[in-house]
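Translate structure to sequence.
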């Protein structure tokens, strides 16, 4: 069993990005600039956005963090998006999700200029991704593709079973892994809450991608010997023995599943750090004008 070290891989990629930024700086070029908008006090979002800003600094990007109160109106947020759309120094920006309930996430996503949509959430980028055109891939699927690529995990002809059909993970990764490409050529099954005999589906998988947000959902009896397991879940479970009062648990029962796997990602230190690195890669691409 090989543990896929997302933290280390992310560090390696950040090193590569930092080298590139150094060269850009030396040549007097445009320094990549990412902006992040955080609305409200969601504790997990605060951690993720903080990590994004920290990693921008580490690779030499400029970053702007726009923090707004939870009662910010949809109009105010749309006004911020419109300002970021036209700010020439900002290469890309994200609006961290989830947003407070009174704000329509779809409306906000649609207002983002696809050229600056380094999250790859705008339907224009999603459509371009589906057709194999230059675009920004959403960060979490992009991170998973990087892991498979850099660990040289064979995907061609493999049965891949995905748990969860969200717009930001399950559905896009199903598209990416079915592509005709080096990382791709999988036979993909996308499972969800209405899937019958989900255990049977998962048992047939060579590659399992768990993105349903239920702690320890994938158990050892569902996993066949030698499977590759990618755990996207980041669930906070109460734990009085920890200083923070909780611990992070994936969608996979790691302890019992890991011994059966050829490769498996841990939580934390797996897909999460790769999500952030992918966002940095998209921002660099935008800065270099490689996409649009
Ligand atoms: N707009 N909203 C927008 N873009 C995104 O790409 C995200 N996502 C998801 C939630 N909402 C978003 C993230 O940033 C999930 N996500 C994310 C980013 C980073 C990490 C996890 C999720 C991460 O750094 N995880 C660490 C542990 C962090 C902790 O201590 O809580 C890990 O090792 O998994």
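Result:
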């Amino acid at each position: 069993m090989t543990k896929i070290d997302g933290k280390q891989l992310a560090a390696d990629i950040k090193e590569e990005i930092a080298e590139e930024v150094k060269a850009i700086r030396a040549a007097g070029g445009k320094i990549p600039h990412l902006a992040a908008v955080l609305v409200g006090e969601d504790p997990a979002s605060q951690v993720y956005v903080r990590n994004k800003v920290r990693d921008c600094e580490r690779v030499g990007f400029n970053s702007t963090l726009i923090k707004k109160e939870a009662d910010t109106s949809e109009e105010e947020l749309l006004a911020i998006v419109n300002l970021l759309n036209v700010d020439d120094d900002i290469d890309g920006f994200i609006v961290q999700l989830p947003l407070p309930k009174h704000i329509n996430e779809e409306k906000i996503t649609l207002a983002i200029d696809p050229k600056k949509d380094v999250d790859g959430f705008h339907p224009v980028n999603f459509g371009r991704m589906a057709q194999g055109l230059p675009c920004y891939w959403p960060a979490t699927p992009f991170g998973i593709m990087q892991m498979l690529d850099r660990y040289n995990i064979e995907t061609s002809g493999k049965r891949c079973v995905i748990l969860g059909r969200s717009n930001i993970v399950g559905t896009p990764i199903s598209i990416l892994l079915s592509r005709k490409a080096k990382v791709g050529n999988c036979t993909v099954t996308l499972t969800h809450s209405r899937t019958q005999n989900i255990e049977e589906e998962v048992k047939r998988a060579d590659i399992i991608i768990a993105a349903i947000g239920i702690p320890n959902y994938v158990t050892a009896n569902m996993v066949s010997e030698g499977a590759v397991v990618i755990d996207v879940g980041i669930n906070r479970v109460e734990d009085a023995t920890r200083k923070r009062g909780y611990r992070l648990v994936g969608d996979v029962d790691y302890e019992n599943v890991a011994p059966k796997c050829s490769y498996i990602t841990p939580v934390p230190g797996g897909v999460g750090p790769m999500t952030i690195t992918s966002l940095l890669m998209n921002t660099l691409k935008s800065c270099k004008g490689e996409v649009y």
